[in-house]
Amino acid sequence: MADRDTLNRSLGALAAELAAVEREGRWAGLKAASERSAADYEMHDDPASRALAAHHREAAHGHEAKRKALASVRKRLDGIGVAMALDDAAWVSERATSESFLDRALAAPRTVVPAAVPPDLPSSPLLSECMERYVGSVAKDGRGASYVNGLRSKLKEFVSIVGDKPLADYVPRDLRTFAESLADLPTNWMKLPAYRDCTAAEVVAKVAAARAGGQAVPPCRSETTIQTYCQAVAGAFGWLAMDLTLRNPFADVRVKAPRHAPKAVVREPFAVADLNRWFASAVREKRPDDYWLPLLGTLTGARIGELAYLQGGDLVEVQPGLWAADLSRYLIVRGTEEERRVKNEGSRRLFALHQALTDVGFIRYAKARKDSDWVFPHLHHEITDPADTASKRQGARLRACGLHSRLSAVFHSSRHTAKDFLRIAKIDPRTSSLQTGHVPQSVEDSYGSKRLRPDEVEVLAAMPLPKDLDLSPYLEAKGPMQVRPLKIKKHRVSVAGAE
Fold it and tell me: Any alpha helices (H) in 323-401, and if so which ranges?
């Protein structure tokens, strides 16, 4: 009996170890997919974006290597488990044989029970049946609502184009089919009257036929977008394959966009003259976010999602008269501390606020709010995704100024502008990277303080700005025209960080 008890305990311990390895493997797979998506987001032509994309790809390779190593460990543990289970089965069989002989010896009547026929193994679930399982896990990992919704849309388009099949029935060719089809799928096709009530697959067929016939077709998905979609699908399949113990059909599959797919758009910084026009328009806005965000993004290089989630307590006085914003603080939402969700760990930083922001009254405006108050409350009033809302509002205002150009001239261009300002002012590259939340450019730069030192904040606060940059509209204005305080109702607030 002691041997039997030992075997049972060993099987229990092995089951626990297998569960732990499985959890670690899933986590590594999810992190790898997340890092690949982050790398795609940063695929722009400026050196900092390329370096950040390379960093994310390297991190993705590390997580993927860990996942494969854990899969190998699990396979070995499974083998051990099978052997132990066979020993257990043999023990049970021997016990049953012994009891049978004993029954016969005692001439006891015995009912013969037919052996149970093992049921057929269930087929793998349809992709549509389990995609929310993956999307939900990404949401729990802290990604913002816009990222999660975008991921869901990508998977739905994959199903529409390639088909909804059991996971085990997909083959590597399906990912290439998806990439080729996306090159014939117009941007925002669901808003185009010509494709109303059509599925994605039907739209692809119509556009491909028009293209083959030499007819004009609307702008379709670019190379970068196609790569982003394909990597999102591959990441989902990798996670689901681990979660359901299935074969991943897209493991190590690489696809390219067709030649006719539009090339990636290069995001450009704003010219000083364009900034002057933007600022002159912004100071006529009533809402604080519309008033301050253009100047704030240009002088700090912060992402719009980082700015949208600023709270009064985030503004800290590093030294008398020297101000910075601290994104390492917890957010206070309805009296409860919640971790601030940011794009990556490099984004969880302190960034300096230029002296000009004190001169035009931004510091006074922000510090008039309580530590737990949103600096831009209108973005959180019955709003599910403040960052996405802020981005759309700023896009509309750039269009009104005649400055918006799809993908190339958007609010994020202010981040590129800020990097140019830092370079023109000869700011140390390491200091510049810490200010904007980019990864260090070299191993040497990664040594030392991981956040801005007071002396670096002082340098950044006093950094000379381009001589033609006109801040007089802000200096002469009396602040946002909004005078009536916003009444915030009790509502659910998303605290997803920048995407």
Answer: 355-359, 362-367, 386-400
